[in-house]
Amino acid sequence: MISEPELVGEDGPGSSPDVVSGFDQEQGPVAGGRRRGHGALWGVAGALTASAVWAAAVFGYGIGGDGKPDARGYRVESDSCAGMELKELATALGAPPAEPATELDGIEHPALHRIRCTVDFTTAVLRAPDGDEGSGWSTGYQASLTAELHKETDPRPEFEAGTTLTEIDGTGVDRVERVPDLGDLAYLLVMEDESMSVRVVDGGAVVALTLASWMSPPDMDQGRAGPPDGLDRPEMLAYRADLISDTRAVMKALKTG
Q1: 8 A C-beta contact, residue 20 and residue 180
Q2: In the chain, which end has fewer C-beta atoms inside a 10 angstrom radius, N or C?
Q3: Alpha-carbon dihedral of residues 127, 132, 134, 140, nearest 10 degrees?
Q4: DSSP state of 162
Q5: Read out DSSP for 6-37?
Q6: CA dihedral of residues 126, 102, 186, 204 (deg, nearest 10)
Q7: Considering its fold, how many domains does the chain have in total?
């Protein structure tokens, strides 16, 4: 069972300050107590405070007076994948050999626009424990983006419910971490297969950027059960800050594109 999401913390040397910037710690209780003889005033003040909180919740989280989510300037169209530059991941993993590929299951509907696109990064040969490249095994990374713009209904309740899942598409969720200062609400999901996904809701927009790795034997027909001893799956958590930074850049591109 997935526990309460934790705030993304330190990521080690060289990590982007983006991961922890802008987080406001919870304020403690206000000092002082309630004065006697002012029950009516406190009742009015409480009603006004409740109204202010409700207004902040409605407009702060992107729900307009007509009940529809605020687009916040996002544009999600069939050509929006061009804004998926992923500069931080490209620096860490090697520049992609081709432009982002747009998936064929996009949606353009009055209530919902959705795109999906992928980027494959440069393939590398895995070295054996002695430094030899003769193992023949190779590894690579793929980033995939799903961007949705909800125009009729607020996506936030469904988004929040998704953070409680223990399995997604047959893969177990290892842990969920809160990402501060990104959209209205953002989480980093770490999966049991070591893939990572940053998921954000911002008004009517929902953005998910996922990074996964793969390993391939020299000959797929050999039927090997796994790589030889000493060849481990690439360490994914090292790219956590890069994934968060690129998610932020993609969201900005979806607004300016």
Answers
A1: yes
A2: N
A3: 20
A4: H
A5: EEP----TT--GGGTTTPPPPP-PPSS-PPTT
A6: 180
A7: 2
For 127, residues 6+ apart whose C-beta sits below 8 A from its C-beta are 133, 135
Q: Do 187 and 99 share a structural domain?
A: yes
Are residues 105 and 138 part of one domain? yes
Residue 4 lies in a domain: no
CA distance 163 to 175: 10
**Containing structural domain, residue 199:** 69-219+233-256
51 and 75, same domain (yes or no): no
Nearest-angstrom CA–CA distance, 144 and 195: 11
Q: What distance in Å separates the CA atoms of residue 72 and residue 254, rounded to the nearest whole number?
A: 10
Same domain? 48 vs 78: no
Percent of the chain with pLDDT over 90: 39
pLDDT given at position 55? 39
What residues form DSSP beta bridges with 56? none
Structure tokens at 67: 């009940």
The 10s digit of each residue's pLDDT in 33-63 is 434 344 433 333 444 444 443 334 444 445 5
- Whether the model pTM is above 0.85: no
Cβ neighbour number for residue 244 with a 10 Å cutoff: 26
